[in-house]
Amino acid sequence: MNAKPYNNAPISRSAMAYVLAGGRGSRLMEMTDRRAKPAVYFGGKSRIIDFALSNALNSGIRRMAVATQYKAHSLIRHLQRGWNFFQPERNESFDILPASQRVSEDMWYLGTADAVFQNIDIIESYDPKYMVILAGDHIYKMDYEKMLQQHVDEGADVTVGCLEVPRMDAVGFGVMHIDEHDRILSFLEKPKDPPAMPGKPDKALASMGIYVFETKLLFDELRRDAADPHSQRDFGKDIIPHLVKHGKAIAHHFSDSCVRSSFEQNAYWRDVGTVDAYWEANIDLTAIVPELDLYDRDWPIWTNSEITPPAKFVHDKDGRRGQAVSSLVSGGCVVSGASLRSTLLFTGVRVNSYSVVENAVILPYVHVGRSAELSNVVIDRGVQIPEGLVIGQDPELDAKRFRRTDKGICLVTQNMIDALNL
Predict the structure, then answer these.
(1) Which of 85, 202, 227, 303 lies deepest, with the highest CB count within 10 Å?
(2) Would you say 189 is a known binding-site residue?
């Protein structure tokens, strides 16, 4: 018997959020050599996965599960430390579900749908009436309660979270072809000529990888799909197209449930899946009025908050002044006679005297030696930058030493530093 919400209680009270967090994110290059994409740092204190989980929590969902697979230790450790406050006595739960050959001794998760199918028995033990399936690797703020409400009101078999994008930008997405009532007529995976939205010939509707199902129907679909030898065990390639053809699939517009503070004018969603996109989204936060408001206390981004001292700025002489302009500096950082501009420092970074840092995203516990000059860089966690190192001024030299993108952003890891033989 499915648990029923109290009269007038939000639908989220009877829902479970299931986050798919097993992907590597290979376009982030060396940043995902040791961690899955959802575990990549973002915004000074958070990890990427914190956004999907915070959206669920802020939406009123109190049952969550995270399916992990690729190099999951960093992610699991973060979840254990930062998301361990759920209380079973309050009808709350938080499960971490690594691929563990529970169905077959030689079978990992074969796809996004299989990552749910293999854990049906665990989900059934909580008896949620609705399932909210989420991708764990995007940056956005969204009230899932509104999407759940649309799903119930429409009597849908599946409701798909969708984002309006310029039509020809949709070639890299799964695209929904909808009618004027938001019913999905067809689902096209990375089409060369994406169908336009009704009344908006220059826009297409791209899937966000967010799905709402009634739990029983989802389980029936997963079992049907698991019995199909031709299936790729994937929501976007198999489950959703089947329901579009044989059931009622509804598109939910992100603009209808996007959470915005008074400082946010546009609906904000980012896939930070490349080094350039990752750098740009982090640097955007240093703007006077950034497009994403992390200071919104009505919709906080929950995370594992390390116990750190305040950031510290020391020395006040010409050429050796600890200062930061248009920058975000996290706890435990020491800016010792160095100059920062349009830079984001994660926890515990130290930047030493006479260094100049601009347009930089510097991950936790990096140590920047004296007289370094860094610009247009992403520095991975724990890197020791030698004294006097210059990055961002000589494109040819940078490309030989580091991972330099076509847009001129350099990703720097400790292995790259060790190979310099300075």
Answers:
(1) 303
(2) yes
* Residue 186 pLDDT grade (very low, low, confident, very high; cuts 50, 70, 90): very high
245 is in an annotated binding site: no
Q: Is 190 a known ligand-binding residue?
A: yes
- Residue 4 pLDDT > 60, yes or no? no
* Of 50, 59, 22, 51, the residue nearest 37 (C-alpha): 22
- The response to whether 41 counts as a known ligand-binding position is no
- 125-172 residue pLDDT tens: 999 999 999 999 999 999 999 999 999 999 999 999 999 999 999 998
Beta-sheet pairing, 373-379 with 356-362: parallel
| Residue-wise pLDDT tens digits, 230-276 | 999 999 999 999 999 999 999 999 999 999 999 998 999 999 999 99
Quote the pLDDT of residue 106. Answer: 53
Query: Is residue 23 annotated as involved in ligand binding?
Result: no
The whole-number pLDDT of residue 12 equals: 97
Give the dihedral sign, CA 78/84/85/86.
Answer: positive
Looking at residue 22, its pLDDT comes to: 80
**Angstrom distance (rounded) from CA 371 to CA 111:** 48
Tell me, what amino acid is at 75? L
Rounded to an integer, the average pLDDT of 361-387 is 98
